[in-house]
Every structure is written in C-alpha cells, then in structure tokens.
Amino acid sequence: MTNRSIPSLAATPWPRSGGDRRNSGYFPCEGPDCCDVIWDVSLPDPPADRGYLASGAIVAADGCLRVVHQAILRSVSLNGRVLWRYSLRRRGSRGTGYSLPLALDDGSVWLTANGRLLSERDGNVVVVARGELGDDSTVSLNVGYDGSIYFGGSTTASRWRQGEIRHLDTAGYDLLSPAVYPDGSVGLASYYGTGLCRRDSAGRLIFQAKTKSREQDGLVTVNDRDEAACHALNDWNTVVVDSQGNVLWIFDRPATFSCIPGPDGGWLALSSRDLTSLSPSGEVLWTREVQAGLGKRPRQALIDSRGFIYAPSDRGLEVFDRQGSAVDHTDWPSGETSALCPVAPGQMALIHENRLCLVGKAR
After folding, report:
1. Is the distance from CB of 358 to CB of 80 less than 8 angstroms?
2. What pLDDT, on a 0 to 100 scale, did the predictor assign at position 216?
C-alpha cells in the first residue's frame, strides 16, 4: 500500500524533465502524429546580457503547465492562457541560475533559483532553503521514494529531506540533478570528482564507474536493467555501465541517452548533430541528422507509448517512428529550442525563440 504522506511524482504526462525518476525520456501516452500549431504564446524577449539559460515546461498536478523561460516561472492553462508569473531573479544580482520544475502529486512544484530551493503551490512561492543550491544546467529536480528532493549545483549535488540539506557529491563544475534507481539510490556524474557513480540516499558510494577518466558530466539515464549512461564532453564519448559500474560499451560521441522501454529495449542517443537508435549492446541500428538548437541544456529525445520518437532541433520538433522514418517536423527559423513537454495524448509543448507553442491536434 502506498503511504500517501510521502509525496511522489505527479500523475501527469510529464511531471519533470526526463519524464520519470530515471530520466528515461519515456511518456506513457501517444504523442502527436503531426506538428500543427494549436496555439502559441509570446514570451518576453530576454535581457541582452543574460544569454541562454533554462527553458522548458512540465505538467503540474493541477493540469496546468509550469513554464520556466528567461528567469520567469509561469502557470499556463492548456488553452494557452497565462494564469500567473513569478520572477526567479534576485534583486541586485546580474546573473541567475535556475532549474526546470518538478511536479509532485501533493500539488507542489519544486525548483532551484539563485542558490535557493523553492516550492510553489497554487501560485504561492516559498523559499525552503538557501545556500549554494542549484545551477543553470536546465534539468528538473528529482524526488526519491522517501520524499527526498534531489538537485544539482554549481559544485555539489544535494538532497533535501524534512528541512535538512545533505551534500552527496562535489565536482569541478555543474552537477546535474541525479537519476533515481528503483531501490532509491541515485546516479550522479561528478566531473573531475568521482565521475559517473551511484550512491545511496545518504551519499555513501555504491560504485564508481570503472572508466579511465573521471570526466563524465552529462545527464545520467538509467534503464529497466539498471544500466546507466552518461556522456563526457572532454573524452568525446558516452559510457554505458551495468548496475555495479562495470563498463559495458562506449558510444563514440557525447550524447544524451533515452531508454526504449522493456527488459530487452535499447537506447536512443541524441548528440549535437544526430539521433541514433542503439541496440542493448550498443549496435547502431539507424542514425538520422538532427541539428542542435541553440542554448545550454541536455537535449533529450522522447519516446511515446507506441515507440514514436520526438527530438528537439534548431527548427523546433522532429518526429520519427520506431524504425527511424520521418513522420513530421516543424520548419521554423533556426534558433533556440527548449526541452520538450508532452501535455496530453496527441499534444506536445515546446518553446522556440521566445514563443511557447502547443503542437499536434486540437482536442
């Protein structure tokens, strides 16, 4: 029986970037078959000195989008109406680092901004903790099976639980939010620290990946076999390890991986220039060109319940079937594209060049 006093992921199509605790990129409904724009909302132009930061959306327990773009948190209804907005900037600070949101089933939404851990409910935002918390790596926070909130940082990855902060690992620069394994342990990429590793919820080391370098610095993705994948930009590769940290195989370029569901499922790898389907053993099944959009973020392809694949690109969104055949695409001017957000069956939201769009078929 589930203990309802312990918050869990909201039961929506997309409660956090990565979809689930494992960052699998899978969502349990059908995505759009076409890329028709249902509605769009113009978002303010960014200040000239800000550069590219977190951009994307999730679906909260109230059924509305929580959109983070250019240091503004917004609630947007599924018909495109902006309900409220909250600035994530801190007075007197030129820059800001902030995450994408995490939606829980108790109605709360969590994110980090300017070294603070924030919680939002019904438009009311409160500061839960302060310190060197969070970064601008543009990934949602994560939640453990005990209700712990996990997040990355500029040099540390941390856990918040019942009012206490515990640091899990340190690195040379930004650590992304950890992936959570089914047993409650977490997968981390600690650049120039521990490297790719697995720790229990208290931070004790379970394994340190048996790699030659400690330069893994990407999003950790965990599949149904408890295998973990993570890229290293300096090594120009992506390593896949088993549940004990033994190297299974290495992909020949840095990419963010997604998991094809099932015990015999393979992987999808989205790099800066292409999308590749891989067997469980790393055999290349097919590759399609997908040019990266501008911006600083892990670019992850998503997989729907049919096996259709959705990839963000410099021109918006590209859709493929399981065999890699093109289904549809947007043909917007080349520019910055956000993380993708499945909203409802047949519909997906994304931000392209300061424009929030819902694509698919109107319901």
Report:
1. yes
2. 92
DSSP letter string over 137-180?
Answer: S--B-EE-TTS-EEE-BSSEEEEEETTEEEEEEE-SS-BPPPEE
Chain centroid offset of residue 312 CA: 13
Record the tokens describing residue 225, joined without a space.
Answer: 């076999």
Is the whole model's pTM more than 0.85, yes or no?
yes
How far is 3 from 25, CA to CA, in rounded Å? Answer: 26
The CA distance from 357 to 292, in Å, is 18
From residue 66, alpha-carbon distances to 31, 73, 75, 305 in Å are 19, 7, 5, 23
How far apart CA 326 and CA 43 sit, in angstroms, is 30
Asked if 216 and 239 count as a contact pair (C-beta separation under 8 A), the reply is yes
CA atoms within 13 A on the CB side of 249: 12
User: How far apart (Å, rounded) are the C-alpha atoms in residues 350 and 201?
Assistant: 33
End-to-end CA distance of the chain: 35
Closest CA to 16 of 105, 96, 80: 105
Low-confidence ranges of the chain (pLDDT < 50): 1-2, 48-49, 51-52
Q: How far is CA 213 from CA 92, 192, 282, in A?
A: 40, 8, 20
pLDDT for res 52: 47
The DSSP line for 254-298 is --EEEE-SSTT--EEEE-SSEEEEE-TT--EEEEEE-PPPBSSS-
| Sequence-ordered list of residues with C-beta below 8 angstroms from that of 123, at least 6 positions apart, any chain | 75, 83, 84, 86
Q: Put the strands of the sheet holding 142-143 in their side by side order.
A: 142-143, 149-151, 156-161, 164-170
DSSP H or E stretch at residue 267:
strand 267-270
C-beta of residue 167 within 8 angstroms of C-beta of residue 203? yes
Tokens of 318: 């590209």
- 180, 186 Cβ separation under 8 angstroms: yes
